[in-house]
């Protein structure tokens, strides 16, 4: 598979590229996309880069009815010197395969998928925006395409990669958000699909998100589905707390998505000789730490924002204001270091950056 | 909305209709389908019946990434006299709207949706198979079509109805199946999307189903996601038990799908003056009843099979054989009565049948 050649069919007309201040997130797509098909028995075949175009699918395709699909999200960054950086992309390909396993979907050759991704990026290189904080968001995904209404794993799939130039997450600089602690809706539960990056988890999250926004909060803090006591994630990010000098994040418990950013932060903190632990954390504990004046910082972590400082939680009607609603020192340092590594302005002690050339 | 006219564009070429013994389930589709679009601000518009054809969707459409979609499943039956019957279709349209609400999707005019369904069936009437046990499976569904990678409710949707002639669920007569009690994977949890008919629930169920099949069982019995103790559903059906003369089914608890068949069975049993209760039922209780010789029958209920008798459970390695692995009397009577009402060979005391004309 790894030496299969990718057919390339370039677009005849190029779309106009947006101004860097009009980018937003995930609305604009580049001129090309990668596609590859899978049929049971034959395996993955016909890898190709084609003009960005609509998909034509049977209305009975399993994706529409039973949501058999997995996806990934990562970014390409252009450096001042004009080099293109990916950040730990092999991690995303590994996670894609883990997600596929949970969803009864076929495995990809990770190296080949990464190679396909690089070729696509090279073709659409001019689409990578260069203004500070901007990047090219990369969305690899696999969908079940067999037209069949039986509730069973599809025998046909399509693997695609699409690219979207995205604006800076923080146009006015990194700033904290207000978070509603969610006591009713559940994102995922042990034995469910929370560890997989699959559509249903996000569909399940929309309602809580909608309610939170109506109340003036930007995201929800997800508690475990069993006791509604232990903290899992924030919005679609992992979450960290700094309590009395120690940094804690919920342990991977079978319903939390293992974030690449989360993993990188844990490594960085250890590298800095800061105490970091992965363990169960209850909302009660956070509340106690807050009351004792020991809740120093809280932040979400993920590819989109990298670090999203939390300025306030609302829990059973009570407001827990953290660090006077300001971005904490550690949050800022992590943000600067990680984005610095990604954009090539900081050293990369772990060899996380993969250059596209 | 209800008086909006449906544009009709008939197919120029008709597909060949299958022999009734080659029908299977959900693989063959009729000549036409119904479509209607939604845009925020404009509402539902452009209802139309068109030739069955592929959908053309942007690869960034929300359905592919975040699974925002709901669906229904019901059947049309042709009677000996050539009349076309639907079974409580208004229940499906109501449930579709309830599902949409959970998924932050727009409501449909239920009457109009039913009218559209009827018009489509009339056009493809010749596709309804007439051999015993065969029917026309109807799949209404709504998908989020806006091309946007933000995790948020779509502003564009498509509502579709497709039709599939299906074979008899029981080619060799109604017969019991073996069921694995699932102790690891979870279908749905309180606060999640279990009460909605939405793709992610089915995606989550595939793995357990695959494992069960490898072990020689046809479906799994789903326990609650919190204590893994209480019975919820079987495969994608509701479940009933007859214990010492009393019929019990799990109460609707916030993670169980409210089946139309389930509701109809409860009404029928009451009509027959048989004791029927909806309550929490633990697997321990079923095991005790089995040990005491009081577990008389068990069966799944749903539109596809109507009644699916359970001949055996396997739980922690122990086989619980029910009624000697044979179809119980009550299961058979319910099956005969419900299918009799549907095919018009039995009286319809509740006015459940809706004629299409
Ligand atoms: C549910 C969820 N949790 C956490 C994350 C963070 O993962 P990563 O750091 O790999 O972006 C994501 C993805 O971005 C996510 O969708
Ligand atoms: C998860 C699930 N439970 C139960 C049922 C039974 O519902 P109904 O009787 O309306 O077909 C279905 C659908 O068929 C289902 O998908």
UniProtKB/TrEMBL annotation, chains A, B:
Metabolic or biological pathway: Amino-acid biosynthesis; L-isoleucine biosynthesis; L-isoleucine from 2-oxobutanoate: step 4/4; Amino-acid biosynthesis; L-leucine biosynthesis; L-leucine from 3-methyl-2-oxobutanoate: step 4/4; Amino-acid biosynthesis; L-valine biosynthesis; L-valine from pyruvate: step 4/4
Tagged with keyword rRNA-binding: no
Region described as Disordered: 1-22
Sorted UniProt keywords: Amino-acid biosynthesis, Aminotransferase, Branched-chain amino acid biosynthesis, Pyridoxal phosphate, Transferase
EC number(s) per entry: 2.6.1.42
Compositionally biased region (Polar residues): 1-11
Keyword Glycoprotein: no
GO MF entry, a single one: branched-chain-amino-acid transaminase activity
Substrates-to-products reaction catalysed: L-isoleucine + 2-oxoglutarate = (S)-3-methyl-2-oxopentanoate + L-glutamate; L-valine + 2-oxoglutarate = 3-methyl-2-oxobutanoate + L-glutamate; L-leucine + 2-oxoglutarate = 4-methyl-2-oxopentanoate + L-glutamate
Cofactors named for this entry: pyridoxal 5'-phosphate
CDD domains per the UniProt record, alphabetical: BCAT_beta_family
Gene3D superfamilies tied to this protein: 3.30.470.10, D-amino Acid Aminotransferase, subunit A, domain 2
Similarity section: Belongs to the class-IV pyridoxal-phosphate-dependent aminotransferase family.
Identification of the protein by name: Branched-chain-amino-acid aminotransferase
Species the sequence originates in: Bacillus chungangensis
């Amino acid at each position: 598979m790894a030496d299969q050649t990718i057919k390339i069919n370039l677009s005849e007309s190029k779309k106009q590229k947006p101004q860097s201040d009009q980018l937003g997130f995930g609305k604009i797509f580049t001129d090309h996309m990668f596609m590859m098909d899978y049929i049971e028995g034959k395996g993955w075949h016909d890898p190709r880069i084609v003009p960005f175009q609509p998909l034509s699918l049977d209305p009975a395709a399993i994706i529409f009815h039973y949501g058999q699909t997995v996806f990934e999200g990562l970014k390409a960054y252009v450096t001042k010197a004009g080099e293109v950086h990916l950040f730990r992309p092999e991690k995303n390909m590994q996670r894609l395969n883990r997600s596929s396993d949970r969803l009864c979907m076929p495995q990809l050759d990770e190296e080949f998928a990464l190679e396909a991704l690089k070729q696509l990026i090279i073709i659409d290189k001019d689409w990578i925006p260069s203004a500070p904080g901007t990047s090219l968001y990369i969305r690899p995904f696999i969908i079940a395409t067999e037209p069949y209404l039986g509730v069973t794993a599809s025998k046909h799939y399509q693997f695609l990669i699409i690219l979207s130039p995205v604006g800076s997450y923080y146009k006015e600089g990194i700033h904290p958000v207000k978070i509603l602690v969610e006591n009713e809706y559940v994102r995922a539960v042990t034995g469910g699909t929370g560890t997989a990056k699959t559509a249903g988890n996000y569909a399940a999250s929309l309602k809580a998100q909608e309610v939170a926004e109506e109340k003036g909060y930007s995201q929800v803090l997800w508690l475990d589905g069993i006791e509604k006591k232990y903290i899992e994630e924030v919005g679609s990010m992992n979450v960290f707390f700094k309590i009395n000098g120690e940094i804690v994040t919920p342990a991977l418990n079978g319903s939390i998505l293992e974030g690449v950013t989360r993993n990188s932060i844990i490594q960085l903190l250890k590298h800095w000789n800061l105490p970091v632990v992965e363990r169960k954390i209850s909302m009660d504990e956070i509340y106690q730490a807050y009351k004792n004046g020991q809740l120093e910082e809280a932040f979400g972590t993920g590819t989109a924002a990298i670090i999203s400082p939390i300025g306030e939680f609302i829990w059973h009607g009570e407001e827990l204001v953290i660090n006077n609603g300001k971005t904490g020192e550690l949050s800022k340092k992590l943000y600067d270091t990680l984005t610095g590594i990604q954009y090539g302005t900081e050293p990369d002690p772990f060899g996380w950056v993969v250059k596209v050339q």
